[in-house]
Design a protein that fits this description.
Length: 173
């Protein structure tokens, strides 16, 4: 078994995340006053890509639990038939791990530190790690695809290979 690759999360920004999808946040978004001026609509923060092979857009809530520290990354997943958006329902920071590689390994991973007021939409076919939260339990609103076809691919790293997230500066440990 090889030594793990250490990955340090970088701040989640539009520019850094653009190759993988869209950052969902109100900062810089088109703000439209509605409901007689009592509500602000932050318009079109992301556009779902779900129509492939007769798919349809759905909303779900995922309840994530924290993983033991140090956080070891051993697999990645992607959705070839549609995009997938994650928006935290409580303002706790969380982690996003993606890869630009066609078949990712530990050295190909890119990690982001998302604030509790930021969500992401993974573009179709983008390799990403399942939810990674920094608190014991955190709920997310998920917008993704339902419908026919196989919309989940996973790749597990070979022979015990893995990456470890260096989150000490994020958690103070």
């Amino acid at each position: 078994m090889s030594a793990p690759v250490t990955i340090r999360p970088q701040p989640l920004t539009d520019a850094a995340f653009a190759p993988y999808g869209t950052v969902i946040e109100t900062a810089g978004a088109e703000a439209i006053p509605i409901n007689q001026g009592t509500t602000t609509r932050f318009h079109a923060l992301a556009e779902l890509d779900t129509a492939e092979d007769g798919g349809r857009a759905i909303l779900s809530v995922f309840r994530a639990t924290s993983r033991p520290a140090p956080i070891a990354l051993r697999l990645m997943e992607r959705h070839p038939l549609g995009s997938q958006a994650f928006v935290p329902l409580v303002p706790h920071d969380w982690l996003v791990v993606v890869s630009p590689a066609e078949r990712p390994g530990p050295a190909d991973l890119v990690a982001f530190h998302a604030r509790g007021d930021q969500g992401v939409q993974y573009a179709r076919n983008v390799w990403h790690h399942p939810l990674l939260v920094l608190v014991p339990e955190q709920d997310f609103l998920i917008a993704d695809r339902a419908g026919p076809g196989e919309n989940l691919e996973e790749v597990w790293f070979a022979d015990g290979a893995h990456a470890v997230l260096d989150i000490a500066r994020l958690t103070g440990t």
